[in-house]
Amino acid sequence: MTTSRARISKAVIPAAGLGTRFLPATKATPKEMLPVVDKPAIQYVVEEAVTAGLPDVLMVTGRNKRPLEDHFDRNYELEQVLRDKGDETKLSRVEESSDLATMHYVRQGDPRGLGHAVLCAAPHVGDQPFAVLLGDDLIDPRDPLLTRMIEVREEFGGSVIALMEVPRESIHLYGCAAAAPTGEPDVVQVSDLVEKPRVEEAPSNLAILGRYVLDPAVFDVLRKTDPGRGGEIQLTDALQTLAAEPSLGGPVHGVVFRGRRYDTGDRGDYLRAIVRLACEREDLGPDFRDWLRGFVTEEM
């Protein structure tokens, strides 16, 4: 099978998880809708896709995820109230989310892992390459990781994954890549992938980030992939197959990301992400930083 060289225009965002690490906040509210300053986390992810030139976004959802659809839909009553009040600032913020992208939705049904969630996107994606963005990783817009990954895909074909260097003792928390250097300092060729390996068995300290640019050949591989760790269909296992057998639709390359990333899947990192982003906001930063300095001084 030859790799597809078509231009990428579609993004897939898996959003069917239960968000149990944030209970009870996520008992009735999707974790993707938890605010990061004054926007839900999922909006940052959609904005990233659109900025990278992917205006067609498919969200893979599950039960109790209706607020995601409502957020990216029009709210005519609220818009009219703000319009009547002459509050153009808030009106533009409300309209922004509904004008961001062409949004589509599909339900995953059974929670059978990330690989299964990606496979649910096959009817929408078809035989075109596409991007997958996981909502727990927020990438700072000043560090255009996804744009770089698309460039690498256009150069090498196949699939591209995002990687980051982590302390070796932490590699068991991530999917891990065995990789060889290429002629470009931030690009490696992936030869093997292991999902959450034991530290002593990890082939490197390169961890997989929640960004992928995938050849449509991954769908055929996923259909033949048996459930792996946790009884789930792992995307990592399918990519491992493509890396080992490039003739199926490979190769697999990795972009080693050294920019700013905010992890909203962990409670502590979620709070740190809010503080960092609030400090950098022109409208909030100056006052917030002054308060934060005083707070830290008092606590020391």
TrEMBL record:
Domain Nucleotidyl transferase: 10-274
Reactions accelerated catalytically: alpha-D-glucose 1-phosphate + UTP + H(+) = UDP-alpha-D-glucose + diphosphate
Listed Pfam families: NTP_transferase (PF00483)
Entry-linked InterPro entries: GalU_uridylyltTrfase_bac/arc, NTP_transferase_dom, Nucleotide-diphossugar_trans
Molecular-function GO terms, alphabetical: UTP:glucose-1-phosphate uridylyltransferase activity
Keyword Transmembrane helix: no
Keywords: Nucleotidyltransferase, Transferase
E.C. numbers: 2.7.7.9
GO BP field: UDP-alpha-D-glucose metabolic process
Similarity section: Belongs to the UDPGP type 2 family.
Protein name, as recorded: UTP--glucose-1-phosphate uridylyltransferase
Organism field: Streptomyces bathyalis
Organism placement in taxonomy: Bacteria, Bacillati, Actinomycetota, Actinomycetes, Kitasatosporales
